[in-house]
């Protein structure tokens, strides 16, 4: 068996993670129709889901990295999606880790499982790129996942998103930024 390739499925204790491809549109439409998922990521129209899916498939082809579909390893049922995206943040090339889990499956550790898989994948295939995560400051569940993954607070950034207590999207919403801190250990010889 050869070395793993970046687009090979990733297996965790409970999940099979496979790169998003255009054939996943139907599953993604179902995922983004969940009320809690839609609250943080939507609203999504069928055209928007199709466009996002096509874009993610292109990112895998062009960038060698992207989001995965997350399925239960035993039953094959949809759990969510997550993984990494290559982006530029404050002029620095980074990998952004993120996740979305079906409403009925939240609170069971799936987001952390997807995040841990993504951090391991990044260390294998893109060790030179820092990993960050961000979410609206009031998304306490995602902030808790970031902390469980060992990411450290790196301040607040502003981008389009939700503002607690105010309806709709806002151009300069505050997002909690977390970053992976890699400790370099040197040995004296």
Automatic annotation (TrEMBL):
Residues 14-151 form the N-acetyltransferase domain. SUPFAM superfamilies: Acyl-CoA N-acyltransferases (Nat) (SSF55729). One of its GO terms (molecular function) is acyltransferase activity, transferring groups other than amino-acyl groups. Pfam families: Acetyltransf_3 (PF13302). InterPro entries: Acyl_CoA_acyltransferase, GNAT_dom, N-acetyltransferase. Keywords: Transferase. It comes from the Bacteria. PANTHER family: GNAT FAMILY, PUTATIVE (AFU_ORTHOLOGUE AFUA_3G00765)-RELATED-RELATED (PTHR43792), N-ACETYLTRANSFERASE DOMAIN-CONTAINING PROTEIN (PTHR43792:SF1). This is Protein N-acetyltransferase, RimJ/RimL family. The lineage of its organism: Bacteria, Bacillati, Actinomycetota, Actinomycetes, Propionibacteriales.
């Amino acid at each position: 068996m050869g070395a793993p390739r970046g687009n090979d499925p990733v297996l965790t204790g409970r999940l099979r993670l496979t790169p998003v491809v255009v054939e996943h549109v139907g599953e993604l439409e179902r995922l983004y129709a969940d009320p809690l998922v839609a609250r943080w990521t939507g609203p999504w129209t069928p055209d928007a889901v199709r466009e996002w899916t096509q874009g993610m498939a292109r990112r895998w082809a062009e960038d060698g990295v992207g989001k995965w579909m997350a399925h239960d390893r035993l039953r094959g049922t949809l759990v969510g999606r997550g993984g990494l995206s290559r982006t530029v943040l404050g002029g620095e090339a980074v990998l952004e880790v993120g996740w979305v889990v079906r409403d009925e499956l939240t609170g069971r550790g799936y987001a952390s499982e997807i995040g841990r898989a993504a951090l391991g994948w990044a260390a294998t295939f893109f060790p030179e790129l820092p990993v960050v995560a961000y979410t609206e400051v009031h998304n306490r569940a995602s902030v808790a996942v970031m902390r469980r993954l060992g990411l450290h607070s790196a301040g607040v950034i502003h981008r389009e998103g939700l503002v607690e207590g105010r309806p709709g999207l806002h151009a300069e919403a505050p997002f909690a930024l977390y970053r992976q801190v890699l400790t370099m250990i040197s040995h004296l010889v």
